[in-house]
Write a structure and sequence with these properties.
The complex is a heterodimer of chains A (about 700) and B (about 200). By secondary structure, chain A is an alpha+beta fold. In chain A, about 40% of the residues lie in helices and about 20% in strands. Chain A has 18 helices and 25 strands. In chain A, strands 13, 14, 15, 16, 17, 18, 19 and 20 form an eight-stranded mixed β-sheet that branches. The radius of gyration of chain A is 35 Å and the shape is elongated. With about 200 residues, chain B is an alpha+beta fold. In chain B, the strands form two sheets. Chain B has a seven-stranded mixed β-sheet with strand order 2-1-5-4-3-7-8. Chain B has a two-stranded antiparallel sheet with strand order 6-9. The two termini of chain B are about 35 Å apart. The N terminus of chain B is likely disordered. Classes of the chains: A alpha+beta (about 700), B alpha+beta (about 200). The interface between A and B is large, with 38 and 46 residues.
């Protein structure tokens, strides 16, 4: 009821400024006023309101490649005058290969009407106008309307119109205005650089910045405008229009800069770009970008993470650990409760480690470090430590020593508990060694997670952990599954010793990673440490056997401990690993003609109009290596590169690199791999899938090489 | 090495014509298109003659302004009398506004009493894209040596109302006069106006 009253009173009030909407076919037009009257000698804002049919549009003051701006012709009583439209910032409206500037849905075009000083208060004025619209969908229809509005002349300032006052005020407030931006433009070869600086641009979000010129022939409206950020502003790369071919090139470049949700008016003058308008590279790509940088919701990110976690179980460095653990469950025979305890302990180990890593990662990023998933493997000491750990696991599988039979020789009661702790640490170990195998599914999910608030990020990591722990815990909890496992027997010992070999392989791989990180000098050092560790563990094994036979073993155990410590310290920690000699990077199996990635090189190549394939990779990233072997370093790709005059850039993230981390973040990724193909015509790159196929790369390169 | 060179050369040869936007004073993009009678025509066959290219779409209000008033036919008559070749190009894709088959184009030409030399059918938009034709009408003039000397609007009144023709400065008339007198075209590039060319979506 109160609502009805409100509507009624609004109707009555608004009738103070009476107008009749006119439907012209594809839009409804009317004149509306910001206030309920106007005082003599004062101004009132009257707006041409267009309610445009869905799918149709009308045009801005520069219509773009085609179309025509809305026009209005006033018939006013003597003494009254009306200004030109204040044009709200337009939208880009692509039509096939063309681009127009205009409005969809609804728009208010305000004008300022000035009353003569001699207008008589108490009288009513009728403002008449003919409005001409070009309304277009894929076809265009010129439509026009005879409009009028009656306004009372009031003695003093009139109150705002309840219906339109606020809307018109907002339109005026949002409309582009000059804010002291300085602009300089210069034709550089085939492009025009427009550099814009000013206090309003400091710290603005420059993604999607766009310049709408007032004149229709200064730029090619349909071409993308590449954005380069600077400390004081930005530089847009525009494609020149007809005016730059005319004998008299343009003397100024006026228009509207749309940036960070705001629009500013400016006039640029010819001249070289000022230094503060560039140097910081392009703005980050929004995660919602069409590029496929997976704009995931929390639910789907968590689902991806869960699947990714499941897949991690099959990774070569993880599988042996888990297979042995599962076999040991079967070893417990019917002891259902024990199996469950083991499962819970393992799951807890996995989740605690994942959450711990996630918390560390989030904290580091919050602190400004340029790290991403897999960051654990970017430090040589960590890689060396992991290599030694893998070796220990492998030697254990080979039967050199036992775990769970304590060196200090405590009773069987503790041993059972040691079993639980063992399960927990198996979980920890599994996560630590799984990290480099960032499964393809995890890339988008983790990338998304790291752009989210910490709680959402933790949920995704938790889902990853759950997925990772799920198979083992399921085996522990579902008796039917345990029964499916083969009965324990002598075969287990053989199985265990076979599984040792993938682990030795993992050691070899980590040593290779280390040499990429720290150069070939690292090889003798890590291998010496490995031999000392093997000796230490062999002695430890001997001590265990002595103990089992009730013989003294303390000296042996101490020797083993000292040697182990020496191996760990000498192999991983001290002295610090040096940087590799420059040429050691990217040595080896490279079949493609590659160049090292730098943002400058990419920009230069793009300016030359060459397609570019960028491979963000790291030595410790297994999926990167697989992709490289099966899809990238192939003759077909090599030929596609040549055919399209394309350049292959490799961004190596094996060692921490803030620039590369920033690039990854632009595409919503927290880690490698990431494959981008930039087209010959510039613009945002195509993101290739994380599981590469040769065909996909070739196809993307061919598409990038095409002119349009 | 040789293979690489060959590949590079092939790549640049392939990409060059597609990238080139029409440039004043440079040779106008070469093309081949079928006319209303089904005959293949090319720009090169008119070497030695001044050629006017006019993009059209008979459903477009801006085109209708010039045809219903007889303005376009007048221009065509005057130009062809001077020995100028006037080619009207339709780049509307099948199903889009302004698309005409050969017989339909012939019929339309008769109905509106167009005095153009020929109507060229460009349903794939190849010619349109080569010239970066944006609107209907959009006008180009190629001189006797095959160089592009004018591109842009037909006149300085970018409106659809027929009254807007009164007092309009016709850029094509002015440019043709310059070409005839052997002068450089005074206003060689102006803003084309009108409806968008109704290209098909596929490249």
């Amino acid at each position: 009821m109160r609502f009805l009253m409100g509507v009624l009173s609004a109707l009555i009030l608004s009738s103070a400024a009476a107008a009749q909407p006119v439907n012209t076919g594809h839009l409804t037009a009317e004149l509306v006023a910001a206030s309920q009257g106007v005082a003599p000698g004062q101004t009132v804002t009257v707006a041409l309101h267009q309610k445009i049919q869905k799918g149709w549009h009308t045009y801005w003051r520069n219509a773009g490649d085609s179309g025509e701006p809305t026009k209005i012709t006033w018939t006013l009583p003597p003494g009254w005058s009306a200004s030109d439209f204040t044009w709200p910032a337009p939208k880009r409206l692509p039509v096939g290969p063309l681009t127009n500037y205009g409005y969809e849905d609804e728009v208010l075009l305000p004008v300022t009407v000035t009353a003569p000083a001699g207008a008589a208060p108490g009288s009513t004025v009728t403002l008449k106008a003919v409005a001409n619209f070009l309304v277009c969908a894929d076809i265009c229809v010129p439509e026009d309307a005879n409009l009028s509005i009656r306004l009372p002349v009031t003695a003093g300032p009139a109150p705002a119109d309840p219906l339109w006052g606020g809307k018109i005020a907002k339109t005026l407030a949002d409309a582009p205005k000059p804010v002291g931006l300085a602009g300089a433009f210069e034709k550089q070869g085939e492009v025009v650089k427009l550099a814009i600086t000013g206090p309003a641009l400091k710290g603005a979000d420059m993604a999607g910045a766009y310049f709408y010129p007032f004149a229709g022939t200064v730029i090619d409206h349909a071409k993308p405008q590449a954005i380069e950020r600077g400390p004081d502003g930005l530089t847009l790369t525009l494609t020149p229009g007809y005016d730059f071919q005319s004998p008299k090139p343009p003397k100024d470049l006026g228009g509207v800069l749309e940036v960070g949700g705001k629009a500013y008016e400016l006039t640029a003058t010819p001249g070289p770009p000022p230094p503060g308008a560039s140097g910081l590279g392009p703005p980050p790509v929004k995660v919602a970008a069409p590029a496929g940088a997976a704009n995931l919701g929390l639910a789907s990110a968590a689902a991806f993470a869960l699947v990714g976690g499941l897949i991690l179980n099959l990774m070569p460095c993880v599988f042996p650990v888990l297979a042995m653990k599962a076999a040991s469950l079967a070893g417990h025979g019917g002891a259902q409760a024990e199996a469950r305890r083991q499962g819970v302990a393992f799951g807890a180990g996995v989740l605690v480690t994942f959450l711990g890593l996630a918390a560390l990662l989030i904290a580091l990023r919050a602190g400004g470090s340029a790290v991403g998933w897999g960051f654990q493997l970017q430090d040589p000491p960590v890689v060396a430590g992991l290599a030694l750990l893998m070796l220990a696991v492998a030697l254990n599988l080979s039967g050199v020593f036992e775990v769970g039979t304590s060196l200090q020789g405590v009773g069987s009661d503790l041993a059972a508990r040691g079993g639980l702790a063992g399960s927990f640490f198996t979980g920890v170990l599994a996560v630590v060694v799984a990290a480099p195998c960032t499964a393809p599914f995890m890339g988008p999910a983790l990338g998304w997670a790291l752009t989210q608030p910490p709680v959402a990020a933790l949920v995704v990591f938790l889902a990853l952990g759950v997925g990772f722990a799920l198979p083992f815990v399921a085996v522990a909890f579902v008796p039917a599954l345990i029964e499916r496992l083969p009965r324990p027997g002598p075969w287990m010992d053989v199985f265990k010793k076979v599984l040792a070999f993938p682990m030795y392989g993992a050691v070899a791989w980590l040593v290779w990673v280390l040499t990429v990180q720290a150069g070939s000098d690292a090889v003798p050092r890590i291998l010496s440490a490995a031999i000392v560790l093997a000796l230490a563990l062999w002695i430890a094994g001997a001590a265990q056997r002595q103990h089992a036979q009730g013989k003294p073993h303390l000296a042996l155990a101490v020797t083993a401990g000292v040697l182990g410590a020496v191996a760990l310290v000498g192999g991983a920690l001290w002295p610090a690993y040096g940087a590799p000699p420059a040429q050691a990077m990217g040595e080896g199996f490279v079949a493609l003609d590659e160049q090292a990635y730098t943002p400058e090189k990419l920009a230069t190549l793009q300016a030359e109009g060459r397609p570019v394939l960028v491979n963000y990779t790291a030595a410790w990233c297994v999926s990167c290596q697989v992709n490289d072997r099966v899809a990238l370093s192939t003759t077909a790709v090599s030929e596609a590169l040549k055919r399209n005059n394309a350049v292959y850039l490799k961004a190596d993230w094996t060692k921490r690199d803030a620039g590369i981390a920033a690039e990854l973040a632009r595409f919503g990724r927290a880690g490698v791999p990431l494959y981008l193909v930039y087209g010959a015509k510039g613009g945002e790159p195509v993101i290739l899938p994380s599981i590469l196929t040769q065909g996909a790369v070739v196809k993307a390169l061919d598409a990038a090489g095409k002119a349009s | 090495m040789n293979r690489l060179l060959v590949a590079l050369a092939a790549a640049s040869a392939l990409s060059a014509p597609a990238v080139a936007a029409p440039v004043l004073g440079q040779p106008a993009p070469a093309f081949q298109a079928v006319d209303a009678a089904g005959k293949t025509r090319s720009l090169s066959e008119f070497k030695g003659k001044t050629v006017v290219l006019e993009w059209t779409n008979n459903g477009c209000p801006y085109v209708q302004k010039h045809y219903n008033s007889g303005n376009m036919q007048g221009l065509q008559t005057e130009a062809t009398k001077d020995g100028v070749v006037w080619l009207t190009v339709i780049s509307s894709a099948p199903g889009m506004q302004g698309y005409l088959t050969g017989p339909q184009a012939k019929q339309w030409k008769g109905e509106v009493k167009a005095a153009s030399t020929d109507v060229l059918l460009d349903p794939k938009g190849t010619v349109g894209r080569a010239y970066e034709a944006k609107t209907t009408p959009h006008m180009y003039i190629v001189d006797k040596t095959g160089k592009l000397v004018y591109m842009g609007g037909i006149d300085d009144r970018p409106y659809s109302e027929p009254e807007s023709l009164k007092g309009a400065k016709n850029y094509v008339t002015a440019a043709l006069a310059d070409v005839k007198a052997g002068r450089a075209v005074t206003q060689p590039a102006t803003k084309p106006y009108g409806c968008s060319v109704k290209y098909g979506s596929a490249g």
